[in-house]
Write a structure and sequence with these properties.
There is one protein chain. The chain is built from 7 helices and 20 strands. Helices cover 17% and strands 31% of the residues. The two termini are 34 Å apart. It has one domain. The protein has an 8-stranded antiparallel β-sheet. A hairpin with a 4-residue loop joins β11 and β12. It comes from Brachybacterium huguangmaarense. GO terms for molecular function: hydrolase activity, acting on glycosyl bonds. Keywords: Glycosidase, Hydrolase, Membrane, Transmembrane, Transmembrane helix.
Length: 330
Amino acid sequence: MHNEHPDTDIAPPPTDGKGPRPRSRRVTRRVLLGGGVGLLAATGGTGAWAYDRYVRDKVEVADVGVAETAAGVSTVSSTDGAYSATGYTSSTTTITLTSTATGSGSEALAWYAADIQVTDATVIRSAFANDEFGQSIIEKPSAMAAAHDAVLAINGDYYGFRDTGIEIRNGVSYRDEPARTGMAFYRDGSIRIYDETTTDADTLLAAGVWNTLSFGPAVLVDGAVPDGVEDVEIDTNIGNHSIQGKQPRTAVGVIDDNHLVFLVVDGRSEGYSAGATLPELGQILLSLGCTGGYNLDGGGSSVMIFDGDIVNQPSNGGERGTSDILYVAG
């Protein structure tokens, strides 16, 4: 198990992901984490801390759409896009999907890659669960993708599991607590891996940053897998586990300006796909033509959605609620 929210390996109740946004998630998650609010409150001490940390929704921005409109962020959608079985083409975007399977038995590995080229960097966007920003707010990625008419989407950095990191999404700053290595998407189409602790959100916005992700580590830098990447830990808080070993993975790879790869590696299924180590993740991105690569939240969170359908086989047997997605708008 790796750095995921505490309900790892417990799948939420199934829904079709295409109807009204589910509002029962608060009750479900509280039951899963200790038998309900009463039990957590009764335990006091650690139980009360865990309830506040992992269960209680902490909404900081109640309507992200309003925040984006206030910041002058325009909506974007394509009226000339065309889907095929292996991709999508519009006046701003070209997506090519590929799937790969190697090995067998305990060495079997399967991954899904989307090669994405855009003419407008702001076509690459982020969305939050329930259109809210804060901690412990979750929604299924397919529901987030549907709500924003996403052509293609992957799970994001699960920012809601922590209270640190620089989180700039769609040109709006939501969190400015530098803590780790991040990935920054610029309006000019460049994508850079950077040290959060050397800057701040205002500086990044002034430099033209459109989106940031705060997770990691970087698994490919200047066309090489960094030494020691297999020993990196992202978080050490309670309920969080090592990101090492063979795991389901989600990553973003960089080929050039306005040219990137969304990658999902399936795992925890012997004979189909065991998952990838971090060095292996970097090597897969390298094989796809990338010179830079960044690890996102994985495990049961790893999912790719194309044209409303889940492309991969999530390790929980179905998609799991998370706090955010990264998507292609049109």
